[in-house]
Design goal:
The structure holds four protein chains of four kinds. Chain A has helices at 3-32, 39-44, 129-138, and strands at residues 53-59, 65-68, 71-77, 82-88, 100-107, 112-121. By secondary structure, chain A is α+β, with helices and mostly antiparallel strands. Chain C has one domain (2-221). Classes of the chains: A alpha+beta, B alpha/beta, C mainly alpha, D mainly alpha.
Chain lengths: 146, 201, 223, 232
């Protein structure tokens, strides 16, 4: 075997290894490297009380309740299931019903999630405020939940 | 066997040496002479295919050395100007490691003989770090015997040696060249060793 | 057969070297444990907190202590010319890198792995997590050895700023730590996470001989 | 296209295009800033804060683009022995670092009012932070080797090894759940951004590219000259 052939063989071997490794990683990372869980993922798995996790989804329409000036109650949903959340603190500007949000906190009960931090998540759509009104009037505006 | 043709090496566009021609044939002893910084070590490393030449080519057994260097390595012993023996270990351990690592066919009696002639037999269980500089140098030469190869490439083998040892080296060199071996070594002074070829850098 | 012998005696040599400097390895382990003590005292007596962040502490310290021994990775062999001798003995630079990586894994990382159970007792980590710890640390420390080989071969000629080598390892070990801490916290997704770690290992293992070999050759060429 | 690999050809070309590029970048910046501050509309959700996008997005793109080009040049330099690649790597790394820094700072200024936090450790933000540190390591490597040949080759190898991070930065928002929103503009689908907001974004991107090219020309020329003075 000449040196050149050996070298070529090693290069091929390296590429095969790297390729298979990349496939292995991509195949397995789908679910695991999440910054947050969705409500239906939570629903499927067992709820551990007092374990700090993050949940991401949309604030359900007509679920937002102001208990006092700095304490709130709302539901986070992904259109399949929803989770009741309580929060004490200052909400970000973008937080409103129908808007994406990521909340950090822990379940205090099987059904109640106590949030310590609330982040608003905005989507990749950008459009002028005026146009959105027009779209809403014609019914063309149709927001997709993730 | 090894033919060096029009070899030049430059680094960061500074020429180190130019158009060196030499050949290592069985039985000859070549000396590389030159001042400090004239590129003796560089030339030796280039001949070992460690440094890439900027021009010229080296052939081993009629093939380009670049394509064939492992075969060349099988026939070559290189001794650098640094001490390659492991300082933390004893002389005996070092010798054992080398014998195993180079898969040497030298037997114990020959090693003992060599140690005796090099006057290292009293230090067998001492750590290399406690030896003097000249003694570690002599320990390096033990590799010539352990590896038992045809081509010897030696970088400054004679510096820091006393006269007895130089005399010993002289005999070893002549012995090796009479056994169809070839030697190239560098030196910055006149060693008083019989050489067949002299190259000035 | 000849080739196999060379590999065996490479490790014989590494074994002799490491055993004669066994105090270096022991110092590393002492560093590991002393740091654990310091963590415990700086956090306070709350056992609950310590057991939550224990795995993170273990990983951080493993990373730090294995970067401490980096200086030795190639530097000694580079300076006394043994790298050239090994190469002249028929081992290519890439292959030397692979052999050295395993040698680092065996003689530096394995002692850490063996001391993990004791560290677990100190850090109040539950016993049933030991298997997951060993699995993630086993793969993770091999990855660290590969990264160590790459970064220390890169920094052979770097006389001024040696800390750079540690920074290189640390920045590339961020994903490893994310996944291996994930293994311990989310036992239900053990399989997929261990596969990811294994994938990362394959990648660094495939890159290692090329990158380290090239750097070794470069450094020897220009030394 | 020889000026992309040949230092002396590059110098000739650079003399031609430097002034036009600089002037163009100033003009584009003027128009772009005018558009982004006054002529573009408020977003339907984010209001005025959306204007940060016109700095954030171009700098993020350029941070990635710079690294991608550095990777290409490293491959060229190592595999095909084109020394201009080393010159390029040395000269351009700080520019990439600055773009990344602008991206991070503007991003956290944007994140505070919108998300409610300066910084979170989601996949996108973490990988960008790693990109920034990789840039810093490249810069420090360039400063800390005595031997130039070793230095530039080692840096090129490091650039190649670090390029693993590029696809992670780019696709992190698609592969994983992140707080950061997915890409607005991608090749496969129609961009989900209104033309009135797309215009300033594109103008600002070109302004960033032009200023990037101008600084790169200056730095590469300096690098070429400093190498020549070493030689003679």
């Amino acid at each position: 075997m000449s040196l050149r052939f050996q070298r070529l063989l090693f290069i091929l071997l390296t590429l095969v290894i790297i390729l298979s490794a990349v496939l292995l990683i991509l195949y397995n990372t789908r679910e695991n490297v999440s910054y947050f869980y969705t409500p239906s993922e939570i629903d499927k798995s067992e709820i551990i009380i007092n374990k700090i996790i993050r949940i991401g989804g949309f604030v359900e329409n007509n679920s937002f309740n102001k208990i006092s000036s700095s304490s709130f109650k709302f539901k986070i949903t992904d259109e399949k299931t929803s989770i009741l959340v309580t929060f004490k603190g200052i909400l970000p500007d973008l937080f409103r019903e129908g808007q994406g949000a990521v909340i950090e906190g822990a379940f205090v009960d099987k059904n109640i999630f106590n949030a310590t931090n609330v982040f608003a998540k905005h989507d990749e759509n950008y459009m002028p405020a005026s146009i959105k009104e027009d779209l809403k009037d014609t019914g063309y505006w149709n927001k997709k939940y993730k | 066997m090894l033919i060096v043709k029009d070899l030049s090496v430059e680094r960061i566009n500074k020429k180190i040496f130019e158009n060196i021609n030499l050949s290592l044939t069985p039985g000859n002893i070549t000396i590389l002479k030159g001042k400090n910084g004239s590129g003796k070590t560089t030339l030796l490393k280039t001949m070992l295919n460690i440094i890439e030449p900027s021009a010229g080519s080296i052939f081993w057994k009629g093939k380009l050395l670049k394509r064939n260097f492992y075969d060349f390595y099988n026939h070559t012993t290189y001794i650098a100007d640094t001490t390659s023996s492991l300082k933390k270990l004893t002389v005996k351990d070092n010798v054992n490691i080398w014998r195993k690592f180079f898969i040497s066919n030298i037997n114990d009696a020959q090693i003992e003989m060599a140690l005796k002639t090099l006057k290292l037999d009293n230090y067998l269980n001492k750590k290399v770090a406690t030896l003097s500089f000249g003694e570690t140098k002599k320990l390096e030469f033990l590799r010539l015997i352990i590896e038992n190869k045809k081509v010897w490439i030696l970088d400054e083998p004679l510096s820091n040696l006393d006269e007895d040892s130089i005399e010993l080296m002289k005999q070893t060199f002549e012995d090796h060249s009479s056994k169809e071996g070839s030697i190239i070594f560098s030196s910055h002074q006149n060693p008083g060793i019989y050489v067949t070829e002299e190259i000035e850098l | 057969m000849n080739f196999l012998n060379k590999i065996i005696f490479f490790y014989y040599r590494e074994y002799k070297l490491n055993m004669s400097g066994a105090q270096d390895i022991l110092t590393n382990i002492i560093f590991f444990f002393v740091s654990i003590f310091i963590f415990i005292f700086s956090i306070g007596p709350d056992k609950q907190t310590i057991s939550i962040i224990g795995v993170g502490i273990l990983w951080t310290l493993l990373l730090l202590s294995s970067t401490l021994s980096l200086r030795k990775f190639y530097q000694d062999d580079f300076e006394n010319g043994n790298l050239i001798i090994m190469h002249l003995n028929g081992l290519s630079f890439g292959f030397i890198a692979i052999l050295k990586t395993f040698s680092h894994f065996i003689f530096v990382q394995i002692p850490f792995l063996l001391s993990i159970p004791i560290a677990c007792i100190l850090l109040n980590i539950a016993n049933d997590k030991l298997f997951y710890l060993f699995a993630s640390f086993g793969i993770g420390s091999l990855i660290l050895s590969c990264l160590g080989s790459i970064s220390s071969s890169m920094n052979l000629m770097n006389q001024r700023n040696f800390l750079l080598g540690s920074v290189i390892i640390m920045i590339f070990s961020v994903p490893i730590i994310i996944f291996s801490v994930g293994i311990i916290n989310m036992e239900e997704s053990f399989n997929s996470l261990i596969n990811i770690l294994f994938g990362i290992l394959l990648i660094v293992f495939a890159i290692n001989p090329w990158a380290s070999g090239l750097c070794l050759k470069l450094s020897l060429e220009n030394n | 296209m020889k000026f992309l690999v040949n230092p002396s050809k590059f110098n000739e070309m650079a003399d031609y295009i430097f002034k036009p590029v600089l002037i163009l970048s100033i003009i584009l910046f003027a128009i772009g800033l005018l558009f982004s501050f006054y002529l573009s509309p408020d977003d339907y959700q984010q209001g005025s804060s959306v204007r940060i996008m016109y700095v954030h997005v171009p700098s993020a793109w350029l941070a990635l683009l710079t690294y991608a080009i550095m990777t290409l040049y490293s491959i060229m330099a190592l595999a095909f022995r084109i020394p201009f690649g080393f010159i390029f790597n040395t000269a351009v790394a700080p520019i990439g670092a600055v773009f990344t820094l602008i991206c991070i700072i503007s991003g956290s200024l944007w994140g505070k009012p919108m998300w409610g936090t300066w910084w979170v450790w989601d996949a996108r933000l973490t990988s960008v932070a790693i990109l920034f540190i990789i840039y810093l390591i490249i810069i420090f490597m360039n400063l800390s080797f005595e031997n130039r040949i070793v230095r530039e080759k080692v840096v090129a190898i490091f650039v190649l090894v670090g390029s693993v991070n590029l696809p992670i930065v780019k696709f992190s928002v698609d592969w994983w759940n992140t707080l950061h929103q997915p890409a607005t503009i991608s090749k496969l689908s129609k961009p989900s951004i209104d033309p009135s907001m797309m215009t300033p974004l594109i103008i600002m991107t070109f302004a960033f590219i032009m200023i990037g090219i101008a600084i790169a020309i200056l730095r590469i020329k300096t690098e070429i000259i400093s190498r020549k003075s070493y030689l003679s």
